[in-house]
Amino acid sequence: MSRKPNQRPSLMRPDVPPASLSTPVATPLMPSVVYASATPDELDLQYEGQESGYTYSREGHPNADVVAARIDRMEGASGGVVTASGMAAVSAVLMGLLAAGDHVVGGDQLYGRSLRMMGEDLPRLGIATTLADVTDAAAVEAALRPETRLVLIEVVSNPTLRVADVKGIAALCKARGILLAVDNTFTTPGLIQPLRLGADIVIHSITKLLAGHSDVMAGYVCAADPAVNVRLRTFVVTTGMTPSPFDCWLAERGMLSFELRLDRAQRTAAQLAGHLSRHRGVAEVLYPGLESHPQAARAADLLGGQGGNMVSFVIPGGRTAANALARGAEGIAFAPTLGDVGTTLSHPASSSHRALTAERREALGMPEGFFRVSVGLEDADALCAVFDAALAEVDA
Ligand code: PLP
Question: Quick one: which of 141, 230, 281, 360 is 20 to 30 A from 31 by CA?
């Protein structure tokens, strides 16, 4: 590495990396918390924006910027901020942009922790919230109030895989000057780029498909308006939501293969969805790429004919049948996560949605026999065979 003027040896650290005319192929990991400058004048140049440079890693560091730039490119965005988790990104939007007296509308099937923030944390701070069915723009419109500042939706809901009316909601938010924030974790920029469809803010849990290996937590948020991005970045830095360089390094490494993984996983998911929908032991299959999906036409329009890597299905028979299926799915991790290289199976009634009553879960379309599969990179035929065997266990 070539030595820059401010990489000078110190009394404590006399050794600096040897000079090299060539450069590393992999992104170097830069864990330094602080950055030394040569003079106060140089610091002035940085703080006044005349020169770029880092000062203190909570304020920003090279590994975070590399990750942000990569997602910016995928989302058609610029100036995105990387956070320590997906929930940090959601929190930055809801707490960094809203104030007491504001009102926010959220999808009624948002990720569980986002729902909790809508139901508990925001009201405690004097921010009123309403949940609405985001598959229906008219339902969202009916929930709006004069003081509504923001609408938060996910494109495909977890775990029932309903598809939001993104275009309709974007149009009504635009007409009223309300910010539309889209959590694109499930769908990823490989399926949809919300800012291009009129959303104002895009959010990611990088932890899931983007990083893809279940070894790093991180999030991302970016607004179309640079002034909103400054507010988001300031909130992230002030509240200490900045991720560590190592986590960013891992996230970038995972993201290098994102497109390939997504392509493979969603082709397998389409095959599994078709396979399960023909299985007599399965009562219902939900997959945005299936013609039987309740919003099949909208899914085809929004997701460019892609269905994603998530498949949900329902088996009859209550908890006993659910236990038999989970036990029978050999080689599939029974774990409430998604987007890993390995297929995972989750059961909302005993994990993400356990706080709801059985009646409420039924009403939301997820009875006891409801399972969600995050399809990974296994061979598609082998994966279908595992589910056949698991369903045979249920029968037995
Ligand atoms: N948004 C969605 C749609 C999610 O599924 C999740 C986590 O599962 C999150 C946000 C939160 O992300 P993290 O776990 O990285 O905080």
Answer: 230
